[in-house]
Amino acid sequence: MKLKICGMKYQDNIKHVATLQPDYLGFIFYEKSARNFDSESIPDIDEAIKKTGVFVDATLEFVIDKINKHNLQAVQLHGNESPEYCSTLKSEKVEIIKVFSVKDEFNFERLKPYEAVCDFFLFDTKGKHPGGNGYTFDWNLLSDYPSTKPFFLSGGIGLEEIEDIKQFTNSKASKYCYALDVNSKFEIEPGLKNIEALKAFKKNLSEVLDYKKEHVMNYNVNEKGYYGEFGGAFIPEMLYPNVEELRQNYLKVMAEPDFIKEFDQLLKDYVGRPSPLYFAKRLSEKYNTKIYLKREDLNHTGAHKINNTIGQILMAKRLGKHRIIAETGAGQHGVATATVCALMGLECIVYMGEIDIARQAPNVARMKMLGAKVVPALSGSRTLKDATNEAIRDWINNPVDTHYIIGSAIGPHPYPDMVTRFQSVISEEIKWQLKEQTGNENPDYLVACIGGGSNAAGTYYHYLHEPEVGIIAVEAAGLGVDSGESAATSVLGKEGIIHGCKTLLMQTKDGQITEPYSISAGLDYPGVGPMHAHLAKTGRAEFMAITDDDAMNAGLELCKLEGIIPAIESSHALAIFEQRKFKPNDVVVVSLSGRGDKDLNNYIEYFKI
Ligand SMILES: *Cc1c(COP(=O)(O)O)cnc(C)c1O
Predict the structure, then answer these.
(1) Which of 203, 238, 511, 560 makes an SS bond possible with 396, Cβ 3.0 to 4.6 Å?
(2) 189: left (phi over 0), alpha (psi -120 to 50) or beta
């Protein structure tokens, strides 16, 4: 667990406390507080300590001024700040900690509107003044905590609470407890901290404070756009205004009640959500485990991709854009984009490599029928990467009226996070569907195939911080990982920059991107989204590679056993049951990302049907 020491006021005392290496130091900017920080500047302290500004219903101008003046890395909001207020501050690249005061009970419904716009919650004791009251509340109330968002525990924590804290950390209520926040119980006078008492506290709790540091890993994007060391926004300067406009607005827009309503409505009435969670009985019998299929194949247009394009077209409209561009390889994302543009009556231009246009005639025809203009990319290898270059060139030339819809959890920040959030409806549904069917919202394993990683990110999202839920990511091995014809990025890839983000990608010794290969067009991508690079690096997810042959056979098997023709991408996820044993009582949820209609020719050729 992390430690935050709050209510710092005096220069020498600040320097002294900083030598104890807390994770956060809090400075209160609130005139009515006895600990109001009114010095001109904060002394130089170790950069690893996050300087946190504490505010109570301050104006945004005031908060932003303090962020810039004191180079704050986090803000803690103690008043009645709205979700919109929080999301505006989020674009200042600071962590947002929203405070809720607890007395004898707490209505957890209050947290919901803040889920998307805060990094942490902080639970404090309700008292006369905001914060610093010196009393604890009944921490057992937190055993009903319905969220997976990490929180700070605050309110009256002192040396006498050490035993209680130890007990608390062994209880269910502490599962998402990220940090302890201390203040008035360690003071000689308001704002002046007692160094010896703090030292004793740290020493007595060293096990608790160090132990969870490793365990509460953050698998979500941080305020700078990174997942661990991966992510970021590596873009040409000419593209900066476009990406920056999106970064500043995406969370704010996504938190607007109007936006949420329209998004949910379209997912329901147009896409056909919720997609069923289907217990595959015969498949389960064959592999002697419990297999559930999340049926994204039943969505309108036949795959999960529409969840993202619906979200992004609504975003584009809110940002006043009336021209949409996209890149596509196999054409699936092009079709999903053309579909939503038709739905909204917006102009749609899809860039596609000349070679891909020839290979994917049915999807090209679909896009044209839906009113999109398909522009061939004639440079380079005339495939996906060249189409992406053309799309970026277009965006640079049309910064004001155009939105670029990226089709997977890749690209410069904020794209991976935005796409992931739109796709997270998948795991949101799995949670209640599984609870309904099995009585437990957590499966033992989640399985998804990975191209760029959007169906996987959506399938994992609400389970990332549930350590007992195993995560399995399935990549395309093509003709074999060592064959030279593969797309298994987590094995073959090295750190590098592709499509504006730092991630794992397949490259030559001099850093040129190598052409990937897979029988499945959707997995034929040389990189992997930055979230997945982080999941691979930290070991949170188990990565498996499946060959063309194994995937094709698993696809045919699903046809015969369950009467479902899967997309070849999804067949890769299904193929793991031949390679990896599960226990009879394990609940394994597989993302069936798409249907196989588009792959019929491939199946026909392969099986000589
Ligand atoms: C595009 C596609 C994929 C791969 O894309 P991700 O972003 O990795 O999800 C997987 N399955 C289907 C059916 C697809 O169309």
Answers:
(1) 238
(2) beta
Answer yes or no: is 410 within a domain: yes
Contact 391, 326 (CB under 8 A): yes
Q: Which atom of ligand 1 is nearest to the CA of 455?
A: 9
Residues 587 and 599 grouped into a single domain: yes
- Last residue of one domain, picked from the residues 397, 417, 437: 417
Q: Residues with Cβ within 6 A of ligand 1?
A: 303, 305, 332, 408, 449-456, 522-523, 567, 569-570, 593-594
Ligand 1 pocket test target in 304, 419, 503 with most atoms within 8 Å of CB: 304
- Measured from the CA of 569, which atom of ligand 1 is nearest? 11
User: What would the two tokens of residue 578 be?
Assistant: 């031949």
Q: What percent of the chain has pLDDT over 70?
A: 98
Q: What b/e readout covers 366-389, taking b as 16+ CB neighbours within 10 angstroms?
A: bbeebebebbbbeeeebbbbbbbb
Give the pLDDT confidence of 528-574 residue by residue, as tens digits.
999 999 999 888 999 999 999 999 999 999 999 999 999 999 999 99
Residue 351 domain boundaries: 231-262+301-417
**441 catalytically annotated:** no
Are 413 and 509 members of one domain?
Answer: no
Q: Among the atoms of ligand 1, which is closest to the Cα of residue 453?
A: 8
CA of 600 to the centre of ligand 1 (A): 16
Q: What is the CA radius of gyration of the chain?
A: 25
> Which atom from ligand 1 is nearest to the alpha carbon of 408?
7
By alpha-carbon position, which residue is closest to atom 1 of ligand 1?
522
Atom 13 of ligand 1 has which residue's CA nearest to it?
594
**577 C-alpha to ligand 1 centroid (Å):** 20
Query: How confident is the model at residue 214, as a pLDDT?
Result: 43
Give the other-Cβ count within 10 Å of 411's Cβ: 25
Same domain, 242 and 347: yes
Identify whether 305 is a catalytic site residue: yes
Same domain membership, residue 174 and residue 241: no
Residues 155 and 236 in one domain: no
Per-residue pLDDT reduced to its tens digit, 157-189: 999 999 999 999 888 888 889 999 999 999 999
* Domain match, 144 and 177 both: yes
593 is catalytic: yes
The domain tally of the chain equals: 3
Enclosing H/E stretch for 478: strand 470-478
pLDDT band of residue 132 (cuts 50, 70, 90) is low
> How confident is the model at residue 408, as a pLDDT?
96
Q: Is the pLDDT of residue 582 over 50?
A: yes
Q: Is residue 153 part of a domain?
A: yes
For 403-466, what is the HEC assignment? EECCCCCCCCCCHHHHHHHHHCHHHHHHHHHHHHHHCCCCCCEEEEECCCCHHHHHHHHHHCCC
